[in-house]
Each structure stands twice: as C-alpha cells, then as structure tokens.
Amino acid sequence: MLCLTPFLLIGCAQQAETSQAEDRISAGLLVTESGLGDDSFSDSAFQGLELARDELGITFDYREPFDKNYDKQLKELVKQDHDVIIGLGYNALPSVERLASEYPNQPFVLIDAVSEKENVTSITFKEDEGSYLIGLIAGMKTTSQTVGFIGGEQIPVVERFEEGFTRGVKEANPEAEVLVSYANTFDDDKKGEQLTKDMVEQGADYIFPAAGFTGIGALKEAQKQDIFAFGVDSDQFFVAEEAVVTSMLKNVNVALYDVMEQLANGESLDGTHKTLGIEENGVGLAPIRLINLTSEEEQNLNEARN
C-alpha cells in the first residue's frame, strides 16, 4: 500500500485541478472581422477578458471571423459550453440572434448593437458624448478652420461618432468646416490613407477616424502629412506618435470585465440593454499629448466632461 500512496495522491490532485477548471467561469469571444491587432475595438475586448482571467480566474477562447462567417465561428464557441458568448459589433447582430434562438439557454452578450432576444444582453456606448470632447479639441485648436471625420461603414454606431464630433467642433468654433467621408469598410488601411490625403488637400489640419483598421491607415497618413489626428476606442498614440493628440476611449475592456465579474460573483445576465457614457465610465479621453490647451480651453473641456 505504501508504494501506491504517491500515485493516489497524484490522482486526487489531478481530480481537484480538473474540478477547479470545470468550476471556472468561461467566455467565448467573437472579435470583429478586422481580427486581433487592430489597436482598437477587438484588442480592447480581448484585454478586458485577459484582465478578468488574471484577476478573477476566468477562462476564455476566441474566434476571428476573417471570412465573415459569423454563424460558423459563433457555433464553434457555443459548442464549447461557455457560460457566456460575446459578439462584437453591429455585423455580428444577425448571427447572434440566430444562435440565440437556436440555443435559448445559452447567455449571449452583444457589444455595439441591440437585440430583443431574452438571452442576449446588449451593451452600447454613448459614442456621441466621447466624440463631442474630441470635436471640442479640434474646434478649439484648428488653425486652418477645416477638420475631418472618416467613418468605416455608415451604420448607426459610426454615425453617432460623426454626430458628436461635428457638434463639438461647431460648439467650439461655429466657423469651422467639418469634412466627412465614409470608407464603407473597417478593414482597408490603404483606403484610410487615401481619404486622409484627400482631406489634407482640402485644408484639414485635424482628422478623426472611427474606422477600425481603415483608421490605422488614416492615423499613419496623418503623421506623414504632418497634421494632427485623434484615435478611437483605445489609446492609439503609439500608432502615430507625432500625430495622435488624444483618443476617444470606448471602454469595451471595462464593460466585458464587469460582465465577467458579474458572472464570477454568481449573478446571471438579465438580457437587458445597457448604455454606457461618460458618467458610467463607458467613454472618455486618453491623455492629451503634442498640443497645449490654454486654461480657458481646459476649463471648457472639463465642463463638458462633467
């Protein structure tokens, strides 16, 4: 019996580890078609789950729908028996709803779109509030009296970015012109470069792309053209350190961490629609770099934040 004891102990330890793994809350994440490495929306979501893994002990898997076959990628995640399946972006909405109907006992979370399905919790953001702050800065600091907005696809969430930005510019500087162009894609950095060149030719000295990977091309071209730019979703200063003044933070990472914390605490998702703005720490600004605000400009910005 003595010689068997170590093996029995090992077997018990392995069973305990298996039990602990099975007890962990798990998530399946479907990022956007741009995939990881977008320095934006997908990366922010991934970082939120990484932090939840490190601090809360959750586990997660993910899929990148480069082929835009959302149904297939989501179904793979569903079959892994996660506690929650997370879909990012407006383009994931139809597939999330189809699978939510097919698997009514599976909780889903949908980011940046709204579903009426009872097992889908929808989380959207007040992009107009954060973009308004960006617009204020652009309106206060432009010297050419021309600034630009570059959107990815012309869908409601991106139109909220445009609306807030334009309103902020006009509030700070009614005489400024706001150029608007849509790339009709989130995945083409070359298109972002070209749209930026077009705006520079029209006199823009600040641009704000809300366009995923297309926006990365816009930021890099802004640096080449020696104009200023604003990042989006996460702090994109390191994409173009000589151009990016600040970024409109859309705290997808915070939202998903909160979802996982809720599940880790034994609370269930309720299928409601949550909208997160400045007050809810859903949107905000990254540090302001490269330019200096006067005390009056700082006061205007702080008043808008509050």
Rg, rounded, reads 22 Å
Q: Roughly what percent helix?
A: 40-55%
Q: Determine the number of helices (DSSP H or I, runs of at least 4 residues).
A: 10
Structural class assignment: alpha/beta
Strand portion: 15-25%
* Sequence stretches where pLDDT stays below 50 over 5 or more residues: 1-21
Largest sheet: 6 strands, parallel
Oligomer type: single chain
Question: What is the CATH top level name of the largest domain?
Answer: Alpha Beta
- For the record, the CATH architecture of the largest domain stands as 3-Layer(aba) Sandwich
Keywords:
2 domains, 10 helices, alpha/beta, 12 strands, 306 residues, 20% strand, six-stranded mixed β-sheet, Rossmann fold
Write the layout of secondary structure elements.
Elements: H1 5-23, E1 26-30, H2 41-56, E2 59-63, H3 70-78, E3 84-88, H4 93-102, E4 108-111, E5 120-125, H5 127-141, E6 146-151, H6 156-172, E7 177-182, H7 189-201, E8 206-210, H8 213-224, E9 228-233, E10 244-250, H9 252-264, E11 273-276, E12 283-285, H10 295-305
Parallel strand pairs: 1-2, 1-3, 3-4, 4-5, 5-11, 6-7, 6-8, 8-9, 9-10
Antiparallel strand pairs: 10-12
